[in-house]
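Supplementary Methods, section 5.1.

A reviewer requested that the exact input to the structure prediction be made available. We therefore reproduce it here, unchanged from the version used in the analyses.
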Amino acid sequence: MAVIMYVDFPHREVWGKEMAKQMNELAQSINNEPGFIWKFWTENQEEEMAGGVYMFDTRENAKNYLSMHTERLKQFGYSDIKGKVFEINEELSKLCKAPI
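The structure derived from this sequence is encoded token-by-token as follows.
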């Protein structure tokens, strides 16, 4: 069953189009992760936070990615990284037009 994963962390650098330019290669690599379905990239410049909402095919693939991604973010110098994995209530989500 597909799951949703949420990640956020303090971010004070580039935003918007500049972030998209700098993170293009990383974004493309995410497409090759086991079980990856999609990602919404999130940013809140006012609160200096960035992250994403992901969909993976299984909890195991999401947790594996979260572990690897957390370590990668730490190597990039980020700290206070938060990540959680949630099961999806597909019936209610489809009712509310979720991209399932």
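The chain is about 35% helix and 30% strand. These observations are discussed further in the main text.
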